[in-house]
UniProtKB/TrEMBL annotation:
Keywords: DNA-binding, Phosphoprotein. The keyword Phosphoprotein applies. The modification 4-aspartylphosphate is found at D57. It comes from the Bacteria. PANTHER family: TWO-COMPONENT RESPONSE REGULATOR (PTHR43214). Residues 6-122 form the Response regulatory domain. One of its GO terms (molecular function) is DNA binding. InterPro entries: CheY-like_superfamily, NreC/VraR/RcsB-like_REC, Sig_transdc_resp-reg_C-effctor, Sig_transdc_resp-reg_receiver, Tscrpt_reg_LuxR_C, WalR-like. This is DNA-binding NarL/FixJ family response regulator. Gene3D superfamilies: 3.40.50.2300. Pfam families: GerE (PF00196), Response_reg (PF00072). PROSITE patterns: HTH_LUXR_1, HTH_LUXR_2, RESPONSE_REGULATORY.
Amino acid sequence: MSEAVRVMLVDDHPVYRDGLAALLGSLDGVEVVGTAADGLEAVRRAAELQPDVVVMDVQMPELDGIEATRRITADSPHVGVVVLTMAEEDQTLFAAMRAGARGYLLKGANQAEIVRAITAVAQGEAIFGPAVARRVAEFFAGAPVATEQSVFPQLTSREREVLALVAAGRSNAQIASELFLSPKTVRNNVSNIFAKLHVADRAEAIIRARDAGLGR
């Protein structure tokens, strides 16, 4: 590319974040325009800086990288997100893809792989590390049906069960009766779901759940 790729780095570990910033900043064709230490800061700074690519960790305080990716790509669709994480689980990988990430690398990736991913995503491509690409290929080759366990990995199995019923239009009283739970337990589960999904109300939770295939 003729101009340097403008990159923002997001990671809650300062040693790793600063080390990666120094490494990438020393390379031709890459300009590190900013960093963030958590998901909320990432969303705010991405809106301000409008980088070409955000390199995003997953497990972070305040707001996780999956939800931060969702918000950034919704607000600024032209910003590419490369997830760089220790998380190898399929549910995290596919949650990141659903959130809008166009790249997914494990933190064991070498410098060349990271730079290649950043450059490709800046050009509008999608790229995954070798191990991740293999799992994506296996997933689609097997064409398994999406399960409730493969979406919203931040929720417990009970919370996913409750969310599916919320998405199906059930009231708290109906959910309590169907799952043989007390109304208070259902209320607590619903409150936890709202907090974990960062939604304001039941209507927003239903939209998020139905977009992910629950409650239909």
